[in-house]
Amino acid sequence: MTEYAEHQSLTAFADQTDNPKALGFDLGRLARIGDWMQRYVEAGKLPYAMTAILRGGEIAYLDARGYTDPDARQAPAVDHLARIYSMTKPIVTAAAMTYYEEARFQLEDPISRFLPEFAEPRVYVSGEGDSMVTRPAEGPITIRQLMTHTAGLTYGFFDPGPIGAAYRKNNVNYFPGKETVAGVTQRTAAVPLLFEPGSQWTYSVAIDVLGRLVEVVAGKPLGEVLRERIFEPLGMLDTAFGAPEDKLDRFVPCYEKSGQGMKRGEEAATSKFLGKQVMESGGGGLVGTLPDYLRFMEMMRRGGTFGAARILGRKTVDLMMSNHLPGDIASMGQSSFSEMPMVGIGFGLGGSILLDTAAAQIPGSAGEFAWGGVASTGFWIDRAEEISAVFFTQLTPSSAWPLRRELRVLTYQSLVD
Question: Boundaries of each Beta-lactamase-related domain copy (predicted)?
Answer without folding.
Answer: 36-409
